[in-house]
Amino acid sequence: MKKVIVFLLVLMVCIGIYSIFTSNNKDEWHYSNGESIVCRVDGCGKRPVYSNWNDRFCEEHLNKSENHASQYSPSVATKKINTKHALTKEEADALRGTGYHGTRPNSTAEDIELKAAMVKCKKCGMHSDNGANSLCDECRYNEEYGFD
Ligand SMILES: [Zn+2]
Ligand SMILES: [Zn+2]
Fold it and tell me: How many angstroms does the Cα of residue 61 sit away from the middle of ligand 1?
């Protein structure tokens, strides 16, 4: 009987050591599917400075971090300029029927793509991916970081 208890104790210790070992070995910089974690800002995609959720921001967005916002240095942020022209109506009309963006010529999909390409940022007048009467990503960024 005693042998069984000793055996069970040894087994439990082994399991304990094993679980500590595997949890230490788990890479905090990757999701469980092996993908690298990225900055929490939508569309940023950069490597975060900290891996924990509250502080998972890249250098440029570290000002949003819960615990490390003070480490954010404004010098890493620079004013962004949108250089992507919105299509004019004439340009869009000229492209109609050419299978714009890999769509079928004269299809609804092509029409939608062309309309989207004509959307202008309400501030800088360049192309905006964010829908009618929106700010483009660059203007949003500049506003957020006080570059205006
Ligand atoms: Zn970021
Ligand atoms: Zn803009």
Answer: 5
Per-residue pLDDT reduced to its tens digit, 51-102: 999 999 999 899 999 999 999 987 888 899 999 999 999 999 999 999 999 9
Domain residues of the chain, as ranges?
27-77, 89-144
Write the Ramachandran bin of 71: left for phi over 0, alpha for psi from -120 to 50, otherwise beta: alpha
What's the CA-to-centroid distance between 86 and ligand 1, angstroms? 26
What confidence tens digit (pLDDT) does each residue in 94-119 have?
999 999 999 999 999 999 999 999 99
Q: Residue 60: how many CA atoms within 13 Å on its side-chain side?
A: 18
- Ligand closest in space to the Cα of 142: 2
SS3 call for 93: helix
